[in-house]
Design goal:
Length: 131
């Protein structure tokens, strides 16, 4: 904010914050993958420290359809403003993106689950007065 005492989330967290505070009341026919910033940083360090690590590594956890993301947010934060029903109901509903986490897991970093990431995001937003 202008007074320097408030938090304005940007990027992925900004989009998530806008969804939680009413910026989008229904689910699109799409999926999203997340990774906790702490886990991403730990994976970077693990890759640097592992002399056998080379090539490309994904840094993410499972991908969820927005129906599931919003349902989880509604469960964790009942105050979220969503349409009723908020779920995408089309017969063409996409299947969330699938990734092979084998290389990522070889780094030995236990990543937070999607639900844990969403829980911690909500806790953070509350702690800085953004919710």
């Amino acid at each position: 904010g202008e007074d320097g005492n408030s938090y304005t989330p940007h990027g992925t967290m900004g989009a998530l914050h806008r969804w939680i505070t009413g910026g989008r009341p229904s689910a699109p026919n799409d999926s999203m993958s997340f990774v906790h910033v702490r886990d991403c940083a730990a994976m970077h360090v693990a890759a640097i420290e592992n002399e056998n690590a080379s090539g490309r590594y994904f840094s993410l956890v499972e991908s969820w359809h927005w129906n599931d993301i919003l349902a989880t947010l509604k469960d964790l934060y009942p105050e979220i403003r969503l349409d009723e029903p908020f779920e995408y109901k089309g017969e063409d509903a996409i299947t969330p993106t699938k990734f092979n986490p084998e290389r990522m897991n070889s780094l030995g970093v236990k990543a937070a689950t999607m639900k844990e990431i969403l829980e911690e995001s909500l806790e953070f937003f509350k702690s800085v007065g953004a919710l």
